[in-house]
Amino acid sequence: MENIKVIVGLGSCGIAAGAKKVFEHIELLNKDNNLPIYLDKTSCIGMCYREPLVEIHDGNDVYLYGDVDQKKVEEIINYHIENHKPLEKYVVQTDKFKAPENNFFEGQVKIALRNCGHINPERIEEYENRNGYKSIKKIADEKISNQQVIQTVLESGLRGRGGGGFPTGVKWKFASGYNAENKYIICNADEGDPGAFMDRSLLEGDPHSVLEGMIIAAYAIKANQGVIYCRAEYPLAIVRLNIAIEQARKKGYLGKNILGIEGFNFDIYVKEGAGAFVCGEETALIASVEGKRGMPRKRPPFPAESGLWKSPTNINNVETYANIPWIIFNGAQEYAKYGTEKSKGTKVFALTGKIRHGGLVEVPMGITIRDIIFKLGGGIINDKKFKAVQMGGPSGGCIPERLADTIVDYDSVTATGAIMGSGGMVVMDETTCMVDIARFFLDFTAKESCGKCTFCRIGTKRMLEILTRITEGEGKDGDIELLEELAQQIKDNSLCGLGQTAPNPVLTTIKYFRHEYEAHIYDKKCPALHCKKLLTYTVIPDKCTGCTVCAKNCPTNAISGSPKEIHFIDHDKCIKCGECFSRCKFDAIKLS
Amino acid sequence: MDNPISMQSSKVDLKLLDPVIEKYKDKKGSLIPLLQGTQNIFGFIPEEAFYKLSSQTGISLSDMYGVATFYTQFRLNPVGKYVIKVCHGTACHVQNATKISESIQDFLKIKDGETTEDNLFTLESVACLGCCSLAPVMMIGGEAYGKLDGKKAVNVIKEIKKKNQ
Ligand SMILES: Cc1cc2nc3c(=O)[nH]c(=O)nc-3n(C[C@H](O)[C@H](O)[C@H](O)COP(=O)(O)O)c2cc1C
Ligand code: FES
Question: Which of B105, B106, B107 lies closest to B161 in space, CA to CA?
Answer without folding.
Answer: B107
